[in-house]
Amino acid sequence: MYCPRLDHFVRFNHNGTVSRCGHMIAISPEFNNLEEMESSPWLATIKKEFANDQWPRECIRCQQTESENKSSIRLNAIKFDKLQTKKDYLTVGGVLDNVCNSACLTCDENHSTLIGGLKSKTYNIVDNSNRFWSLPLDRVVHLDINGGEPSHSKNYKHILANLPPSVKSVRLNTNCSTVLEELIPLTDRGVQVTVTVSLDGIGAVHDFVRWPIKWEKFYENLLAYKAMPVKLNTWTTVSVLNVDDLPNIISFAQQHDIDHSYAYLNDPVELAVENKDTPESLAYIQEQKRLRGME
Amino acid sequence: MKPYAELACDNLDLIQTEIYTFLMNDTELLINGEKNWQFLDAKKLITNSPNLIKFFLANKLYAQQAAVTLLYEDLPLHLDELPMIAKINIPIRNTKGWVNRWYELSEEEIAKLPKMKNQFGSEQENVSVLVEQELKLAAEIYNLDKPIVFHSRIPHSVIKLTPDILPRIVASFTFVNQPTHLLE
Questions:
Q1: For the segment B87-110, what is each residue's pLDDT rounded down to a tens digit?
Q2: Residue from B38, B57, B60, B62 to probe the interface with A (highest A Cβ count within 10 Å)
Q3: Is residue B9 part of a domain?
Q4: Which residues does chain B have within 8 Å of residue A262's beta carbon, measured at their own beta carbons?
Q5: Percentage of residues in chain A with pLDDT exceeding 70?
Q6: How far apart are the CA of A241 and the nearest CA of chain B, in angstroms?
Q7: B107: in domain
């Protein structure tokens, strides 16, 4: 048993550290740089466990989905790995910056400068873009952009405009508040682009969860992406705010023939579905509304 | 907690059709003659079953795992794996001619049972050392025809009586918020 991610994935965290795989659970350590991670005893132990057909504790999510659905990030990584010709290729993911024009109620200042600005005049701006440029770029074959909001970030736009020739595919998350025109030259040159649109509600539910992005604009831009030569899919982070809208969300995606999947939110715990209508959850929502002037 | 409780469901026939269609179109379980407990892709099933998700949301339940039990023969006495203790079963097809039984066994008695590895590699109590006929019956359901929430940590079995058609197909669900309150 093995997982190609142990050799080929580098994830940037919002605090500037790197991790091996964003799908590992929180006990996986963070490192100052790629070299430190690749030479770490921790990584050697994980690889040894896989070689002995044991699931490392860090990899419990893949272990679970493989036993339930016979699918996992690891199995997807194996499929991807088989298509690679570069022996030492890298796929890069995570948070390169947190510049964002949205203050989603489920998000925080580490992933959105708009939330940071609402909370304090001296908010944190994450900028890991220099760390990206310091990677061995000729090894990078895939870029997975989480944001912040890539369409609102100069750093991400600069990376997309100057993408190393070795990069053959890009996947990015977007709030769909605008269309990222910078993707067109990439598709023109044969880069495979996947756009994952956060679809956290329909109409008024969207406008509440994804404040201050407006549904009408979101919908217009979603249709624009649908007309572009990109692979388009939608993703719902299911929380107390939108769980009752999930049937509408699924139906919307089906009506528009757009791939859709979802996962339950874990953090902040007050918005996790199992805490729906608890006093803690209601108080948390109230505080978020106050912060955004939504009352 | 009660061994089980029936749940009202206005659209059971629609839910049964949705799940059966999913089994036929999106899995090969029936074609391949698979047996016993089989996990399903819960997200895919939910996405393809609008009446099922509405039923769960009406009960404020948020589905986590989905599985189907395909029975051609008895399902002997067993306990389900922790941490789940309350699950929902929905009859899909051919449940007439079978009986579900739950037996009384205290947590202390369960703790004393020898351990074994189940089919998924997890360690759990081995109830096969118990003689079903010697246990005290806690509850039974003949011809399961309604959704139930049931206590999966009470030893239980499914016994074939006189079914007309096989396999007996029952869908099982776990939830991020366990429905233990429905067993109070």
A1: 999 999 999 999 999 999 998 999
A2: B62
A3: yes
A4: 43
A5: 100
A6: 13
A7: yes
Distance from CA of A254 to the nearest CA of B (A): 9
Q: Which of A245, B42, B60 is nearest to A253 (CA)?
A: A245
Residue A219: other Cβ atoms inside 10 A: 16
**Count of C-beta atoms within a 10 Å radius of residue A220:** 12
Q: Where are the domains of chain A?
A: 9-83, 84-266
What's the pLDDT band for B123 if we cut at 50, 70, 90?
confident
Is position B184 within any domain?
no
Share of chain B above pLDDT 70, in %: 99
Return mean pLDDT, chain A: 95
Would you say A22 and A94 are in contact if contact means Cβ atoms under 8 Å apart?
A: yes
| Residue in A254, A260, A273 closest to B62 by CB | A273
When mean pLDDT is compared across A48-57, A97-106, A284-293, B118-127, the lowest value belongs to B118-127
Question: How confident is the prediction for chain B on average, in pLDDT?
Answer: 94
Say whether domain A84-266 belongs to CATH 3.10.180.10: no
- Sort out which chain B residues have CB atoms less than 8 A from A69's CB and list them: 39-42
Q: Is residue B162 part of a domain?
A: yes
Give the CATH number, domain containing residue B77.
2.60.120
Nearest Cα residue to B73 out of B163, B172, B173, B184: B163
Which H or E run contains B150? strand B148-151
| Residue B130: domain span | 4-177
CB-based contact B102:B138 (threshold 8 Å)? yes
Q: Is this complex's ipTM strictly greater than 0.90?
A: no
A260 touches chain B (CB under 8 A): yes
Domains of chain B: total: 1
